[in-house]
Amino acid sequence: MTESPENAPTTSSEELTPAQLAATPAEHQKRAGNALIRADDITAGYLPGINILEDCNFYLNDGEIVGIIGPNGAGKSTLLKALFGLIPIRKGAVTLRDEAITSAKAHRLVQLGVGYVPQTQNVFPSLTIEENLEMGMYLRPKKFNERFAVVADLFPLLAERRKMKAGSLSGGERQMVAMGRALMMEPSVLLLDEPSAGLSPMFQDQVFIRCKAINATGVSIVLVEQNARRCLQICDRGYVLDQGRNAYTDTGETLRNDPKIIELYLGTLAGSSEK
Ligand SMILES: Nc1ncnc2c1ncn2[C@@H]1O[C@H](COP(=O)(O)OP(=O)(O)OP(=O)(O)O)[C@@H](O)[C@H]1O
């Protein structure tokens, strides 16, 4: 984990910037309303007695792209895993359209319309593109052709190369397969864990363009990214996590132009965030 920012939220509201104030639990309660997904005060971790997320708050409204940025090890991927039931939540609650889904199992969440694309090992390399997409349809195999047409519209390359083994594809193409597979189940929410990581600049651009295109079809998106600037460019709102806690939240545009955010997370001092 990196050092705590010097202006991390304090208990005195007079000292908080608007983006810090918005990240306080009280403001979260005011703003989250009946969001599509909301996480209230969640604490979670991998090893007994070690919390990675501490009292984290998050919400995603219908139709939004919400970005999660922050330094290496801040807990961004962990928050996504907690939302998708991949790690136990020790305190707090997660709801999906007001239904409690705290630590619900991943297959249940898929049935409820939540798709998740992990950062790595997100395709079956020995299977063809088409077979990978079929794996995404195991709950509704009869709808394959209908969903394949939608996915092919977003990722024409997947249709062109449908008989190719996923293992023979480039990193960027594999990312398309992984996103396509999650979309096969017609999710209302897509949780994307660093989809641009390790890709060439051209493929990184493609990922962000595709995120916007997917969102335009009505899918809400939670986007964890190390490419913080680019993420904030396309997201409606963003959260900055630092050391497992909410540090800042505001619109993507405001965060991208906030001198404190630039200094701490986007500028030369931010180092790892500047990929
Ligand atoms: N499976 C695991 N078991 C134990 N600790 C883990 C595990 N996965 C992650 N962690 C720890 O949790 C902390 C947060 O990791 P996480 O991957 O959520 O951070 P991140 O903000 O996504 O960082 P990055 O941008 O580097 O991926 C780190 O200290 C990491 O070492």
Task: Give an account of the 3D structure.
- It comes from Williamsia maris.
- InterPro entries: AAA+_ATPase (IPR003593), ABC_transporter-like_ATP-bd (IPR003439), ABC_transporter-like_CS (IPR017871), BCAA_Transport_ATP-bd_LivF (IPR052156), P-loop_NTPase (IPR027417).
- Belongs to the ABC transporter superfamily.
- Keywords: Amino-acid transport, ATP-binding, Nucleotide-binding, Transport.
- The structure is a single chain.
- The chain has a single domain, classed as 3-Layer(aba) Sandwich (Rossmann fold), CATH 3.40.50.
- With 275 residues, it is α/β, with parallel strands linked by helices.
- Helix content is 37%, strand content 21%.
- It has a 6-stranded mixed β-sheet with strand order 6-7-8-3-9-10, with helices on both faces. Strands 2-1-4-5 form a 4-stranded antiparallel β-sheet.
- The chain is built from 12 helices and 10 strands.
- Bound molecules: adenosine-5'-triphosphate.
- Adenosine-5'-triphosphate binds next to helix 3.
Which parts are unreliable, with pLDDT below 50 for 5 consecutive residues or more? 1-7, 269-275
Specify the overall morphology. globular
Q: What fraction strand?
A: 15-25%
The unique ligands bound to this protein are: adenosine-5'-triphosphate
Main sheet characteristics: 6 strands, mixed
Number of domains: 1
Radius of gyration: 18 Å
CATH class: Alpha Beta
GO molecular function: ATP binding
Keywords: Amino-acid transport, ATP-binding, Nucleotide-binding, Transport
Family: Belongs to the ABC transporter superfamily.
InterPro entries: AAA+_ATPase, ABC_transporter-like_ATP-bd, ABC_transporter-like_CS, BCAA_Transport_ATP-bd_LivF, P-loop_NTPase
